[in-house]
Amino acid sequence: MTGRVIVITSGKGGVGKTTTSANIGTALAKAGNKVVLIDTDLGLRNLDLLLGLENRIVYTIVDVIEERCKLKQALVKDKKNPNLSLLAAAQTRDKTAVNAEQLKEICDTLKEENDFVLVDCPAGIEQGFQNAVAGASEAIVVTTPEMSAIRDADRIIGLLEAKEEIKSYKLLLNRVRPSLIKSNEMMSVDDVVEILSCPLVGIIPEDTGIITSTNKGEPIVNDENALAGKAYRNVAQRILGEEVPFLDLDEPKGFMAKIKNAFAKLKAKV
Amino acid sequence: MEKGFVENGFIIDLSDAKNTTQLVFELSSIMEHPDVKGKKICLKLGDLDLKQSQLLSIKALIESMDADIAFIDTNSEQTEASAISLGIIISELSDKEIPSIAASSESNIKEEAVEIKIEDENVKKDDLNKTIEIHADIEQNQNSPIETAEDVEDIYEEETTQEISEIIPTEHFETNFETLALNEGLVPKEEISKYILLDTGDVLPAGVEENSVNTEALPTLYINQTLRSGQTVTYEGNILIIGDAHPGSEIVATGDITVWGILGGIAHAGSLGNITSKVRALKLNAIQLRIAGLYARRNDTLNVPYVQKTNEFTPEEAHIEDGKIVIYKKLRRD
User: Is the interface score ipTM higher than 0.85?
Assistant: First the structure.
């Protein structure tokens, strides 16, 4: 079996790379795929927190590279889903502890026994980014509808295009607020796609549930009712090759529509 | 149309509405207001008879705007019956004016509770001086925010007289709040042990042999600072830290580790196999405790608050006993 290695990157920090990695990884594993998440943000690791696995980490990616343990020993199994495991970054080292070749080797080994290897890339375009991209053949570029994030995403797409190994890259638009788009205060999805001219893999609405899910160490895809969770599940399905329409994020306008919507919600609860 | 405003809730008076259509129309126009989002709604429904289905659609309308019904107030028996079957709480706003202390009061629910209290006390004691005392009481109440459902229930239990218990079905109250409290995690379902031994069968490095060197004879490294995420201290001997060790930090010693503060990171005592080593801290909250060849992780439920600042210190000591890491609440000499 040869799995797919997908790097999740953005250039700018704080747009939701790690949240996206945790959620897509969990959603893919829930769909029955064997998934490994690699945190390459050495020194500023967070992915373990989002998955609530911090207390289980014994060995990190640096221990694997410096041969203090075997790769298998360093993989931390998820609490709920045995299909999902995490290769954590070292917190006490920095990006220079790893080089691109070593990471490529790890990715190559992991993809032989897994359907998906998701690499969570650190912010920036320096060594950390170069390391994370090294083993990947696909990329997901995360951005938000803000000019600064889009500018950085554009730079990243340029760098990805220059890499021969990256066969395809897709855009994931995070933290979209339909109400702001409607009042012309935020760039619309179409605007962003047009500026970046890059195919879209998902639109994730802004959701305050993300904050609680991070604090709890439980990805939001596990919450059946959360809209952001649904959006991430759709992204996972699209990665698996299914055609899923993008969520309609517009809130119903008329009074009757509101009542209908409320009843639909009630029904869903029952 | 009278409309009252309190800090965390709305009282919406719909008692003027002549039929359901008018009522729903009025309600929806009020609910359009952006301030209503996330609030607790107190509905005055007046004499109108509402069937269960009608009341359900009103509830659904309010919930669709991200608000919640806190209470309803009605004069109709049918509405009352519908509300009970839907689990909506009924209370009496009475004909009193809505107090203008809006800014200082915490929520609708609390205001309700206070209002009822005034009535009771007044009935019992007609003394003017007492009334002043009661007012002082109320002020106190307003200062202490009532946030959980349990608190509200307590007030009812303490303060209500027969008059009020007629209006509020108590049995319904209890079950409702118990499940609510359980869902919010307020009532612990079972006691949990703090640390769980990791299966270290295949993770331990080879070549570390068990020994039991007296740690008192080892040299001690004295550190007078807070260890932050990403910082590591390694020493051949004992380590004493005056300060906190934040989550993400790592302390590795071949002897004992003592933290005069909160230990939140990883601590590895007896890293070269000394099974008599101990880990002590004023607050032992390490994400992982390692002693010699035994690794234990903190329970998942303690994982939620990432950085735990506390003024409550419970000095604890961890050491190996019968092949397990055990933790004692008090520091012991033996």
Answer: no
Q: How far is A104 from chain B (nearest CA, A)?
A: 24
Q: Quick: pLDDT tens for B145-183.
A: 444 444 444 444 444 334 443 444 434 444 444 444 444
The verdict on B289 touching A (C-beta cutoff 8 Å) is: no
B195-328 has which CATH code?
Answer: 2.160.20.70
Residue (of A107, A26, A261, A21) closest to B65 by Cα position: A261
User: At which residue do the structure tokens 């696995």 appear?
Assistant: A53
Give the model confidence (pLDDT) of B272-326 as tens digits.
Answer: 889 999 999 998 888 899 998 888 888 876 555 455 567 777 788 888 888 888 8
Q: What beta strand segments (E) does B107-242 contain?
A: 195-197, 220-223, 232-235, 238-242
- Interchain pair A215, B306: CB under 8 A: yes
B200 Cβ partners below 8 Å, 6+ apart?
A58, B293, B294, B295
Q: Does A54 touch chain B (CB under 8 A)?
A: yes
What's the CA gap between A123 and A45, in Å, rounded? 12
Going by CATH, does the domain composed of A4-269 fall within 3.30.310.50?
Answer: no
Beta strands B266-269; B257-263: pairing state: unpaired
With CB atoms and an 8 Å threshold, state whether A215 touches B304.
yes
CA distance linking residue B326 with residue A46, whole number of Å: 29
Q: What are phi and psi of A104, to 5 degrees?
A: -60, -40
Residues B14 and B42 sit within 8 Å (Cβ to Cβ): no
Q: Coil, strand, or helix at residue B106?
A: coil
Q: Tokens at residue A230, please?
A: 């649904």
